[in-house]
Amino acid sequence: MKAHFKRYFGYTFWVALEVVVFTGLSRLVIFPVAAHLLGKEQFGLFIFSLGIALMLGAAPSVGLATGVIRHMAELEASARGTLVSTSIRLCKIAMLLIVLIGIIALGIVRYFSQTDPKIIWCIVPLLILLYPWNILELQLVQYRVGREFALRTAWYSVLSMLSFIAIPAAIFGGAVGMAWGYMLGFVVTHILLSWKQKILFKRSNYDAKLAGLLKKIWLHISIASILSLSGRYIYRLVLGIFYSYSTVAIFFGATNILDLCMAPMGILSQLLLSMLSGFSRLEDVGKRQRYTVLAAAVSIGVVGPLIVLLAGPFILSVIFPDFANESTQILRWLVMVMPCLTVEIFSKPFVIKFGPIKFVPVLNFITLMGHLVPAITLIPKFGIMGAAVSYNIGYSLSAASWLGALLWTFKFSHKYKSDIEMLRSVEGG
To answer: Tens digit of pLDDT for each residue in 402-417?
Structure first.
């Protein structure tokens, strides 16, 4: 029992440290220092541009990584490395196309409109950043499945340290310089990890059958991820278009605190998905483990809002003193989404691992519409308060839909064969 507890405590520690070094350093150090150096308007410009890039974010690799996590335990040991390398090959092709199309689209927008060139030159490096970021995520997924969380944390630490290049870049180049510096940190980390894994100048192995297996999941999850991310970042886009970049900075200050306080749930959700990757069927997950997850979700959903209300204003006054009061007013409205986020975050690992994969894009489309319709309706008329109300509406609908999918998964997942089982039955037949 002690060995079991020690092992899972170790997993939790390293996953938590990964979030702290990657998310915590950027949100508590890099972004606050940049906000002080750039001022509210220029910092808002960077956050606005970053939001546009993050609408796509790691979505291409998320779909492939989900496929690896979902099927790794069902494959022979000899095929697992090929599964990872096949996913990397697919992602490289997709990301090259995405970055190229994105840059061409920006050129067209600039040519036919009066768009501020600073926005274009902020978005370009952040779009390029998506290539090393997505490949990096897939290079690290094997450590996640193998439960080598310390190695993942070490590489995220390298990425976080190199991301500090954005600070001197911001001093010399403003918002545009910060964007290019931030991108450089991801590029250098990707090169170092590729060199360490001895794949920097090596072509990835590829298996057509495994690629077909990954593609069944890839499109669904990646589209779902884009829909989910778009819903989250649509507020920056709409606020930046209808109001000012300063308003974007104020809203970011509030959501930044919320994201930091929700980080423990993200840690547990990542750990849960990694643990579930070792099971082929939901029935193999014991009742004790299920009740432990339920207890953790309920506890965080109740305690989390209280922590935000008590600690949030003080943290804002330290990291974003220039607009802390304005962000605090918005934060008091956003705190109501925390129980909804709890439901969503703890439902996802079970639905992604054991539910029909087609559920995921449908659920995230509901989430997107739940955010998009209120945002474009309320923000132009009510400004930043309209954004706060839309935020609550969007996550309430999202929580309800994911909870329904979770209940369906627990009741009916045993009636469906996994993709690996279907592939084997076809090969055997």
So the answer is: 889 888 888 876 555 5
